[in-house]
Amino acid sequence: MGINAMSIEHTEGIVLKTYDYSDTSKIAVVFTKRFGKVKVIAKGARNQRSKMSAIVEPGSLVKMVFYMKPERELFQLSEAGLLDQFTAVRSDIEKFAYYMYILELVDSLFEHEEGDGCFFESLVSLIRAFSVSADAEMCVRAVEVAVLHALGHMLELTKCVECGREIPSALLTGAAYHAGGRVRFHENRKVFNYSFGHGGILCRSCAPAERNRAHCSHACAAAMAALLGADPGAVAALDPSFRQRAELKNILRKTLDFHLGKALKSLSFLDQVLVGRKP
Ligand SMILES: [Zn+2]
């Protein structure tokens, strides 16, 4: 086989976004199980009667067949079938806003053909859990942690991210407790210094030299540790307080923004939806 050989590939994927291309075609950016993030052109998909147009929609889980060529960044989609549209998400404005954010986050942080099947599997299972969960917020925090972890930006909670000095594990385990089948976290004033640039805890000697840092309560660090590698069932059991959720959101936001280097469009929509919901 020559180096420019075209191959026919089958995979599953989550459609992250689509846009029109020419009068008749659509381009879709898809996070796939086998090839990470890829871009495909769906010829004829702008025709409303085309089967493709209903399938290749942002947020859909699809199986697809496409022609892959080395050194190319746009592949031709040959067939697509719908596996799941997550309809529960589309009928709930808050979940819909969160979902648009998840899709834009993955699209913005992964490069062409970056990402692996392991992350794909956890993304899909978190989206499934998110679509039916009463606590969409914590599922989204779990996606953020999974994204950072998949990209290697995360999350050093056992030793100083700068010098490697060990952080006593009892500080994290002691911050969590079980109550009524849920995992809760003690409110106290003890904080770590957290580097959102490096994605981890700093010891007292290293903290002053790091500009991109914030205080992070032991509860918040323990919640991050619990989200890291947690399956959707374990995420559902987490029950941080209102204040702890706000802190967790803030620390992860700062960490993600550090790597994004731009504002996400979906975030302003999400913020409007969430503000409208508050009592
Ligand atoms: Zn240190």
Question: What this model shows, in words?
Answer:
The chain folds into 2 domains: 1-85, OB fold (Dihydrolipoamide Acetyltransferase, E2P), CATH 2.40.50.140; 91-279, Recombination protein O, C-terminal domain (de novo design (two linked rop proteins), Up-down Bundle), CATH 1.20.1440. It contains 10 helices and 10 strands. The protein has helices at residues 51-55, 87-90, 93-109, 117-132, 136-150, 169-173, 218-227, 232-237, 242-260, 265-277, and strands at residues 7-21, 25-32, 36-42, 61-68, 75-84, 176-179, 182-185, 191-195, 200-202, 213-217. Bound molecules: zinc ion. Zinc ion binds at residues 160, 162-163, 165, 202-203, 205-206.
Task: Give the gist of this structure.
The chain is an alpha+beta fold and 279 residues long.
Topology record:
Layout: E1 7-21, E2 25-32, E3 36-42, H1 51-55, E4 61-68, E5 75-84, H2 87-90, H3 93-109, H4 117-132, H5 136-150, H6 169-173, E6 176-179, E7 182-185, E8 191-195, E9 200-202, E10 213-217, H7 218-227, H8 232-237, H9 242-260, H10 265-277
Parallel strand pairs: 3-5
Antiparallel strand pairs: 1-2, 1-4, 2-3, 4-5, 6-7, 8-9, 8-10
Bound molecules: zinc ion.
CATH architecture of the largest domain: Up-down Bundle
Strand residues, percent: 15-25%
Task: Tell me roughly what share of residues is in helical segments.
Answer: 25-40%
Strand order of the largest sheet: 1-2-3-5-4
Instruction: Report the average pLDDT across residues.
Output: 92
Ions and ligands: zinc ion
How many structural units, i.e. domains? 2
Q: Structural class of the secondary structure composition?
A: alpha+beta
Estimated radius of gyration: 21 Å
